[in-house]
Design goal:
alpha/beta, 322 residues, 19% strand, 10-stranded mixed β-sheet, D-Maltodextrin-Binding Protein, domain 2, 10 strands, 11 helices
């Protein structure tokens, strides 16, 4: 046997061995630069999946910023539509932008939403000395005289903070949402300042934005927009228990390409549920100010479908979209 032939045979054998033993590694795309919510979702969930042995190899994180998540969304739909080893970080911002056609014609049904396992709860806040003692008081005032109540929020007009009180009002039978005053400012702290200062009558935002103001006694949270009361804030009633069936949270979750098999989708849902049930995730939520919010698989997909439909309709009525 010549030396050249021997080398060729050995190369072939090594390549063959590699092909049979290689394990495909999962990848998580964070549609933003390092830091922030989407990056946190990929890195924390990916790390815990590996730590609890839900996956055999570490999850690779790829940062893909651009167009508020639109670049990554287009990449998944156009180039990775059947990649069963790919997961993508998502949040309420993802579904809001899809509902408002912010991803250049892309729609929510072009991927499959696997689940959410933690959230920053939405809240409705008034100043400590506000005459509104409950969510019902606030809703009744708006129904009686829509222009008498203005909300401040950290998102632009048509953003998710704007949508939260509108969803509540719709559940209360109030449909003329264009009459509801909303002022978009630069972040939750500014929105609270507007409310405490009396420039607006209420603030709409997330729990993480209001905790310090709550502890200082500057505000009262009259409703948290979760299924159940938030641990550590057990005295704050949910909107649901006050008669308004609205859950509006800045959830942390994942979507996957639409073209993967049902078996692969169920597999990812199972892995995400394992993370949700782990003490490691409970600690990560505590460390990062998240509340429990677990909707996985078909239950979550139904939630997303309803949310996208509601926001799309309200956005059109507000003139945010055509």
């Amino acid at each position: 046997m010549t030396n050249r032939l021997f080398k060729a045979l050995m190369t072939s054998a090594v390549l063959g061995l590699g092909a049979t033993t290689a394990i495909s590694a999962a990848e998580c795309i964070a549609p933003a630069n390092p830091g922030g919510g989407w990056d946190f979702t990929c890195r924390q969930i990916g790390k815990i999946m590996y730590d609890i042995k839900a996956v055999d190899t570490p999850v690779q994180v790829t940062n893909m910023p651009g167009a508020g998540g639109g670049l990554a969304y287009n990449h998944v739909v156009s180039e990775r539509a059947d990649d069963g080893d790919l997961i993508v970080a998502a949040s309420s911002a993802t579904t809001t932008r899809l509902a408002q056609n912010a991803y250049a014609g892309m729609t929510a049904d072009q991927v499959r939403f696997v689940g959410a396992i933690g959230a920053d709860p939405g809240v409705i806040v008034v100043a400590a000395d506000s005459p509104f003692k409950s969510l019902g008081d606030l809703v009744d005032a708006i129904k009686a005289e829509p222009g008498s109540v203005a909300f401040a929020g950290g998102s632009a007009v048509g953003g998710f903070d704007h949508m939260k009180p509108l969803m509540i009002l719709q559940k209360a039978g109030f449909t003329d949402i264009t009459k509801v005053k909303y002022i978009g400012v630069d972040g939750g702290a500014d929105a609270i300042t507007q409310t405490v200062g009396g420039f607006t009558q209420a603030m709409t935002g997330d729990m993480s934005e209001v905790v310090s103001f709550l502890s200082n006694g500057d505000i009262r949270v009259i409703a948290v927009l979760t299924d159940e009361r938030v641990p550590g804030f057990d005295d704050i009633p949910t909107a649901k228990e006050q008669g308004y069936d609205v859950v509006a949270v800045n959830w942390r979750g994942l979507y996957v390409p639409k073209g993967i098999s049902d078996e692969k989708f169920d597999e990812w849902a199972g892995k995400l549920q394992q993370v949700a049930d782990s003490p490691e995730w409970a600690q990560a939520m505590k460390d990062n100010g998240l509340a429990p919010f677990t909707k996985v698989g078909g239950d979550f997909q139904s939630y997303v479908d309803g949310l996208v439909s509601d926001i799309a309709a309200m956005s059109k009525e507000l003139g945010v979209t055509q």
